[in-house]
Amino acid sequence: MIIRPYAPGDDAALYDICLRTGDNGGDASHLFTDPRLLGEIFVGPYLRFEPSLAFVVDDGAAAGYVLGARHTPSFEEACEQEWWPPLRRRYPRDSFPAGTRDAHYVEIIHERRNADPAIIDEYPAHLHIDMLPRAQGHGMGRALMERLLAALRDAGAPGVHLGVGAANVRAIGFYERMGFATLRASENGRVMARATT
Q: pTM of the full predicted structure?
């Protein structure tokens, strides 16, 4: 099991990992009609705009990844200009029945997102990390995070933040062990952050 940089042929596998970890770390395949929808939001734009900050756990096939953006406002603007418009055309608001998971995430595609300035002043970068069960418990999550933190530090980002669902207790514990502290908490989730050094 190794960690390697993202390669262009990885896209489909990383989209699949996103789906298979999309239910608070568990498999969300049964929750979606469109299996690409989660990946279009949480994987695709990172591979497009920040490929040098994408790293893959590989055990003969992709088994996990970490994706980062060095400057969240610039990343959000690039997505707003180039990534979301074609997705909004492909996924109109009435694409799926109301109340479904697909419909919820289509709404996310149509919302303009802006990071909180109070967070990005100190922690301008952000990340997503997902690993299939077969890659867990071998130290690969820590190794992935350390690889990304070093890359963010080299790119000049002093701090990084992330969001995690409240029900994903295992991930919260992992982030805490990696030195992340909770900046905000609600019944739905947390925003956690740490310096890159």
A: 0.93
